[in-house]
UniProtKB/TrEMBL annotation:
It comes from the Bacteria. This is Uncharacterized protein. Keywords: Plasmid. CDD domains: NodZ_like.
Amino acid sequence: MTNPDAPTAGADSSGKVLLIKAKGGLGNRMLSAVTGLIYADLAGRRPVIDWRDGVYAPRGENAYPLLFQSPDMPDPALFDDRTDGVTPAIWAGRLDEFPVTMVDGDHSGPLVYRKSCVDLSRLDHDAALAVFWSYVSKLPRLRGHMARDPRFRGRSARDIMADYLTRYFSPNPRVEAAVAAALGPLARPVIGAHLRYTDMAGPLEAVKQSLAALRTQMPEAPIFLATDSARAQDDIRATFGDVHITEKYLPKDGRHLHGAQADGIDPVLEAENAMIDMWALARCDHLVYSKNSTFSGTSAIIGGLSGDRLVNVDRFNPKIVIKRFLQDYL
């Protein structure tokens, strides 16, 4: 929902707009949007977040203002009919479409997004409307621009991302109340654990081993578990006591949560449940996670979790280390 007390988004003295589209899950689209928001500020464009792709709200309805107390932004539908002054030109007359259709079925490879994303190497595009999207954060590609801008110079990427997440992604009141209700009764410290175990199966045994090690140090610490898998949830709750969860829909056949609408599940409600998990993890004292997941990585940034408060179960996995490097810089 729009926060009436929030400032108008972005610097738009030029009258130019950056339409920020999305692809993927909640963490992916939040960190991707942060890149777009920073690019908009660097380029003097007004940002407009467009989450009408049907993943977290009925198709055609913008999920962003439903889920977050967002700064004032125009309705992205206002730009749908624009046919000129658009970059990349592939979007002209197609601004009601989404990245998933633009990639023509080719969802692999770190460079797929570049054909339909504004050229991030330049800030001086003449087009009145530019379109940004990426599957993950592309902040390292803006490093040169940020080094020349006093608003960003000398600040760490993590600090900048945390700042933009706070400004543009404050949860709606239902989510805030649910997070407080979930964590409020729990004794401190609380161990958070996240495991994606459906379409991208995470290391369940490594998560359990890390939880066991933390429980050895803090035997009375409750665990807050966030997972997309009924099987993983049942396994961890059978292994450890005092495990707390957000009650949410988990497909029994192992499908990922983005397919919940096929089962008649309200996509906005399930998006809010995912946000409850994300912000609850952010407010835990320790977090067991995989850096292969942008979901829990976003939680860590929101919560300011670092150092020995984080246990990355994939920190020695060379495939994931290389994958993340390529995604950041390409």
